[in-house]
Design a protein that fits this description.
This protein is mainly beta. It is built from 3 helices and 12 strands. The longest helix has 17 residues.
Length: about 210
C-alpha cells in the first residue's frame, strides 16, 4: 500500500484525514502527511457491512513515534483514527457494522471538499462526517490547515447540526445530489448548504 501514489485509493481515502490529524497535533505542521506516516502493518478484519470488509492500517509516525497512527477503513471511508493500536481493534469495525445510524443522514457520511467547486479561490473547506457522529472541519491552503474537531447529527430531515469543542451549535439546511464541478461536465455527488459551512456552500463527496 502506497500513500504517495496520488491516484491510489489509500491516498484519496486517508490523506485528508492524516493531514487533519497532524494539524490537530500541531497547527504549525508544514510537512505533507505522506512524509510523516509510513505503513507498518495492515489488518484485514473478518467484519463486513453491505458486503464491504473493514481494514485496519497501522503507521509509524514521525511526529508521534510512541503512539503511531492507526485507522480503520470501510472501503474508502474512514471509520476511526487514533493511535496505531486502533488498526487492530476488530470491535471498532463490529460496532460500525452493527450501527443503525440513528439520528444521522447516511448520505452525509464520508469526506466532503469544496475544492471541486472553487474557482480562483486560494482556500478550500473540508468536512469529514463519520458514522460515530464525530468528525472535523478545516479551512486550508497550500501552506496551512486550520482544523477543528466536530460532532454532528441530523435533528430533522435536511438539517445538519454541528457542535464545536467550545459548545457552539449551528444548524444548516442542505440538499444532497449530483452537481457538475467547475472544470468538468461529469457530475459528482455533492451537498449544498443554504448558508456557508466553514467557508463553503457546496461540497463534493471525496470518500
Amino acid at each position: 500500500m502506497d500513500l504517495t501514489d496520488p491516484h491510489g485509493p489509500l491516498h484519496r481515502a486517508l490523506r485528508p484525514s492524516l493531514r487533519a490529524h497532524y494539524a490537530l497535533l500541531d497547527p504549525e505542521e508544514k510537512e505533507q502527511p505522506e512524509r510523516l506516516a509510513t505503513v507498518r502493518a495492515v489488518y484485514e478484519h473478518s467484519v463486513t457491512r453491505d458486503g464491504v470488509p473493514y481494514t485496519g492500517i497501522a503507521f509509524d509516525c514521525r511526529r508521534d513515534p510512541e503512539r503511531g497512527v492507526g485507522v480503520i477503513l470501510h472501503g474508502d471511508r474512514v471509520v476511526h483514527l487514533g493511535g496505531a493500536e486502533v488498526a487492530t481493534r476488530a470491535e471498532v469495525a463490529e460496532r460500525d457494522a452493527a450501527d443503525p445510524r440513528t439520528g444521522l443522514d447516511v448520505a452525509l457520511i464520508g469526506h466532503w471538499s469544496t475544492d471541486a467547486f472553487d474557482y480562483g479561490v486560494m482556500e478550500c473547506s473540508d468536512l469529514e462526517l463519520r458514522a460515530d457522529k464525530a468528525g472535523w472541519g478545516s479551512v486550508s491552503n497550500a501552506f496551512m490547515a486550520d482544523v477543528e474537531p466536530l460532532t454532528w447529527a441530523c435533528p430533522e430531515p435536511g438539517v445538519l447540526e454541528l457542535r464545536r469543542p467550545d459548545g457552539e451549535v449551528t444548524r444548516h439546511r442542505y440538499t444532497v445530489g449530483p452537481a457538475a464541478p467547475v472544470h468538468s461536465a461529469e457530475p459528482v455527488m455533492s451537498v449544498t448548504f443554504a448558508d456557508p459551512v466553514l467557508f463553503g456552500h457546496q461540497y463534493a463527496k471525496w470518500g
